[in-house]
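This part of the workshop introduces the protein records we will be handling. The structure tokens are whole numbers drawn from a learned vocabulary of backbone shapes. The record below serves as our worked example for the rest of this section.

===
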Amino acid sequence: MSKKKIVVLGAGPAGLSAALSLLQSDNCSVIVVEKESAVGGLSKSFDLWGKKVDLGPHRFFSPDSRVNKWWSDRLKGHYVLVNRLTRIFYKDKFFYYPLKLLNVLAQLGFFESIAIFFSYVKVRIFPLRTIQSFEEWVVSKFGRRLFNIFFKSYSEKLWGLPCSTIDLDFAAQRIKKLTMLEILKDLLGGGLNRKKHKTLVDQFVYPEKGAGQVYDNMKSEIVARGGTFVFDTVPCQIEIEGQVIKSISLSNGQLIQCDELISSIPITDLFKLFNITDEKLANSIQQLSYRNTVLVYLKIAQKSIFADQWIYVHVPEIHAGRITNFENWVSRVGDGFSTLVFEYWCNSQDKEWNESDSYYIEMAKQDASHLGLFSVDKIEDNLVVRIEKSYPIYKKGYRQPLSDLIAFSHRISNLQLIGRNGCFKYNNQDHSILMGILAAENILSEKQINLWNVNEGDEYHESAQVNYEESRSV
């Protein structure tokens, strides 16, 4: 019996999980097409100044035992348990996240803290009549004062939009189960809140050689099982007959016949390959957009700059939205320097996207000076990395054009969309891994699992536990 020919577009967490799951059957041949020269997508790691670093902070946790096992099986014990420390920088002060009562009182002051409380009480007594945006959702949950302090600036940096124009789906996916009651419990000590929302998880497991170690190991398994990778290549056309995809043309000149296509590349890029003539559908593609990321890595001749794994910057005067300190993920001794990455966001059409590396290096230096983290004289080296289409933008009104594309994809019998970019959904690693596994099940077992239900705010989000007792702590 001939094997099913399956093409997977994208070698990130979703695509690799799908490919490896498929190859556990002898009835499939799998080709993975990846535009970069390495696997891992947004979660890849790379060597820099003699260390492994990631594309910003990537921590893994999942309440799903199947995903946990899948992830840990790839690492075979080569991971550590990290005690999370992250803080918010606001008005030249650092606030612990999750919030702690004495820290909030000391930093904001008693009267500001009381004002936050009464702002919350006010919105409970006089609730908003309509809740149609991220801003209205957060204000209705926590009060306007807390929104202004701990949500507004960071969110507007990330999305490049006023919070009033960000769809409430962003809140529903990222902080739906987080409530004022949970925050108050953590403010008062956290002992009452054993089952924490993901946002408040204070431990996580981390591979010894960076987040991308999982995906490098997946690649090795895929190759060992007979899978094929085509790197530094993108699809340029998809041939479809009726409702069935027949072949894919690649930018390197290859033409690949396929029985099934699994795609984790940006949904807008994929649909442009179909040469769509329907005006409404073509317009829907144009209405969806992604946010780009620019990462500035700095080699600092100083250890112990700050104890956090990363810091959220909640002031508009500082351009960076997040700063990661890789020294606080896996213990490193004897190298005499620290590696920090400053994170900036923009759109492809923004002039900032095409600015020079020196522009961003200078910006990071100015931000560092404002923060007072270290002297810029201690910077020994730098690197700028640009990531296109790293976040789907949840602009109000995005749901209708996305629904049009989903409806079109459902009419194609041998197409499945997975992953953050493939589904235009703000997935974590665990969501994308699960999507890949389930997509393979749909092919291998002829199931009809609806992949769009993953990361839809159901009980999958309810809690997150770290159950790796054998892990070493850092």
Summary: Residues 110-125 form the longest helix (16 residues). The chain has 16 helices and 20 strands.
